[in-house]
């Protein structure tokens, strides 16, 4: 490790920061199997990221200007997929642990800057109808354009006095709101909510709620579990189904909503920095929020490039704080209840 560090320091002394880009690691020098085992993604995907993020990672103002975009991306992918700054990984690409940390920060910000390019609801009517058709084909639930849920990601305690990030299990976390389509592609991601907020409060305060309340995607709805309030645009299951139609509705709801549960498992198994197996994210809430969002961007990019979203080995259910039931509040929205009753009468009777 001493030799690469000495070379880097000499280059900076001789040429000044920003005048040379050192290539410590060549993709062409290793096998595809090695890239998948170490960084979680194939060669062509990594080349695409270099092309996509190269300009941002070559900014003269960044401390890691002497490290090539390719090396920065490998360092970040290594962290996202392993959850730790491994010395072995730093040795492989020829940089120190401190440099790896800077690379992760640079790549994370570059991905966050492009989040709206890859995480978005379809805007045209044809694409919206295609969403409805795909969800209907899954379990017979009509009008659905997405499934919504929250997932907690553990973070280090911001400080001893701040309890806003302590969830009901007594752990510090961010409560992340996400919506996905039937393929597992994320259409909304909000990663900044403190872990003490219940799922229904996160949704109520979210920009997603504001958009739907303002009339976005009329005559369509999302599916959410019983931790959310029933809304005119959000269908939830019945707490105690009684009629055959209500049972059929709940079964179709459960089968459809399982798509996002599977998506959460995939995210956490592919990006081990999110699953807590190597400990909580050791960053501030803001930086942790950006890392989660960056992983979500990579998730969607991998889908666009034909990578199987379900190909990552499953890790079982994502352990989350226990949910609370809110069925006693559903009747407060009489219009939402009418819509759900009409849905059951028309499609599940």
From TrEMBL:
Cofactor(s) named in the record: a divalent metal cation
Source organism, top-level taxon: Eukaryota
Subcellular location: Cytoplasm; Nucleus
Keyword hit for Nucleus: yes
Principal subcellular localization: cytoplasm
Domain DDE Tnp4: 148-300
Any one of the GO CC terms: plasma membrane
Family: Belongs to the HARBI1 family.
Its biological purpose: Transposase-derived protein that may have nuclease activity. Does not have transposase activity.
Protein name, as recorded: Putative nuclease HARBI1
Record organism: Delphinapterus leucas (Beluga whale)
Taxonomic placement: Eukaryota, Metazoa, Chordata, Craniata, Vertebrata
């Amino acid at each position: 490790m001493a030799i690469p560090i000495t070379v880097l320091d000499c280059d900076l002394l001789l040429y000044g920061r920003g005048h040379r880009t050192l290539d410590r690691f060549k993709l062409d020098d290793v096998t595809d199997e090695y890239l998948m085992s170490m960084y979680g993604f194939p060669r062509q995907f990594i080349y695409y990221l270099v092309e996509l993020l190269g300009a941002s990672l070559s900014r003269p103002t960044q401390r890691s200007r002497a490290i090539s975009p390719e090396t920065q991306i490998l360092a970040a992918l290594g962290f996202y997929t392993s959850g730790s700054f491994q010395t072995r990984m730093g040795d492989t690409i020829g940089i120190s642990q401190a440099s790896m940390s800077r690379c992760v920060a640079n790549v994370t910000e570059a991905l966050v800057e492009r989040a709206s390019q890859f995480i978005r609801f379809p805007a045209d009517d044809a694409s919206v109808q295609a969403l409805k058709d795909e969800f209907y084909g899954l379990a017979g639930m009509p009008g659905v354009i997405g499934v919504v849920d929250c997932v907690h990601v553990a973070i280090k305690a911001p400080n001893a006095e701040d309890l806003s990030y302590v969830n009901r299990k007594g752990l510090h976390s961010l409560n992340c709101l996400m919506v996905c389509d039937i393929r597992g592609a994320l259409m909304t991601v909000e990663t900044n909510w403190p872990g003490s907020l219940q799922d229904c409060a996160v949704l109520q305060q979210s920009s997603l709620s504001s958009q739907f309340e303002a009339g976005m995607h009329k005559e369509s709805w999302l599916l959410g579990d019983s931790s959310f309030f029933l809304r005119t645009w959000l269908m939830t299951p019945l707490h105690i189904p009684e009629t055959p139609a209500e049972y059929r509705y709940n079964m179709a709801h459960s089968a459809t909503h399982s798509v996002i549960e599977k998506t959460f498992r995939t995210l956490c198994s592919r990006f081990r920095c999110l699953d807590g197996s190597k400990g909580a994210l050791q960053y501030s809430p803001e930086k942790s929020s950006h890392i989660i969002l960056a992983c979500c961007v990579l998730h969607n990019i991998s889908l666009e490039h034909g990578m199987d979203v379900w190909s990552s080995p499953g890790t079982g259910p994502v352990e989350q704080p226990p949910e609370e039931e809110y069925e006693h509040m559903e009747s407060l929205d009489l219009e939402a209840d009418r819509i759900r009753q009409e849905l059951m009468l028309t499609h599940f009777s």
